[in-house]
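seq:
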Amino acid sequence: MTHALLFEINGIQSYLFASGRLREVIGASEMLDLLTNKSASDNLFCAVCRQIPGGEDIECSRRAGGAFYIFCARREPLEAFMGLWTLAVQHWVPEILYDIALGEGANHLEAFEDARQKLQVDRSRNRIRLPAASPITERNRRMGLAAEFVHKNDGLIDATTARRKVFSDLSCAGFIQRFSPPESKLGWRDWPTNMDSAEKENDKDNSFPFSGENRTVALIHADGNGLGQVLLNANQAVRANPSRFIELYEEISKMVENSTIEAAHEATRRVLLPAREKEGSAALAARPVLLGGEDVIVIVRGDLALDYMEVFAEAFDRESRNQLAEMNKLDIDGLPRRLTIGFGAVFLRASQPFHMGIALAEELMGEGKKAAKVKNAGDPPATLQFQRVTASLVDDYNASLERQFTHRYGDTVYVDSLGVYYLDDIAPRLADLRALTSLLRGADMARGPTRQLMTLIGLAPEEARARYRRWRQLMAENAKVRLKEFDRLMRTLLGLDVWPNDPPDLPYGPPREGVRKTPLGDAIALIGVVHGVAPSSKEDAA
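struct:
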């Protein structure tokens, strides 16, 4: 008989960004990383193992990203571990939500599947949050939780905030090394710790190195594509030989983490370090928040974000190919040739609420991953879906799509976004959108009329058509080569060989199920990201 204990944290993203302060986000990141991080000998997992009888007999198939799957031939060590672990977790990371379950079976696979079913049941439980707050309890004004301590600067604070502050001492930070290429010898001082302008001379090294007055950042959430197929094939191999469970799943976990770490190293090496050297800034223009398995959260300066994601995706693809080639030696049939990455990115001002932005980034990432499976379920391409947020509050994806990008006139719906872009050679490609953005930034392209055009679509389509005809006439007379390139990029992004009507009546694709789409809204958003402000009324009138 084999016994399995499964543990997974719920809502990591919302927990990390709950306070909104970058230094406390960093503290939460370090705190969560030290739960299970294999590279740290003083992590909580190892500490609990050392305290229980029979801890040395526990086997582990996965330990990363706030989760672990452990096994033992005897039930007693796992029961002891479970009791001590749940107590330790509540002290280590107060207020965290988690699922935990103990299962059993004739072998590792059966024990895992039994525990997995019980974990789903445990997910529906509402756990009591301590300490309970009575109506007269003083609360942390920022978090709304019951206050337990008095901080010299922040006054009354809750237990969670107190723990975040303990781990915001970055001199002992460890997880950021997974974003630091070994040869660069980067330390904790090389990464920014606050988003505010330095008020004191000795704070400047800790400040985020913005580009002039542009305070736009990209909150990026990335997750792997194609891992489900790897796990499915490994599961079939384990069913044929249950004794290989630990070996195979441990190798899969290692493969994914190695691919992600190498991608993070390469993005730092090719994007962040050259930018710092060019600008002479003290800190890198990014802040790592999470790297667990294939799950990544990072804040990158807005003008560097697309380069960062493109390099990350390329390196993740390349390294996963190498890792999967090595895994072929394990005799797992049907392994994919590579894994890819899906990005959700929210461009927002540094002063806007990150805790709302991360929920939108996760939603955008999910939309991209679904689109990738539709394109090719067996080999999903790398994707990016992004949104620029300029309002004080951050809507969910569907609400913002309807409010900001959708116009209706009669039976036709006009959408000023293509949604998902691909980092592979599949339309619509991110590279083509970037080329269109560069083209529109040219002085002779007059992007002001383009913005007016999209506003007019929902109010007076006929007037919009007249404006567009006039714009094309002026471009044909004054910038014919530019107009030709504009048409080529639009056709490529929309997946058209030729326009159904040439010249087109509007810069939107042909109706598909009553919907006409254009990449122009996405291009204008990227222009705003680079400049940091929306086009002015004077520019609109140009």
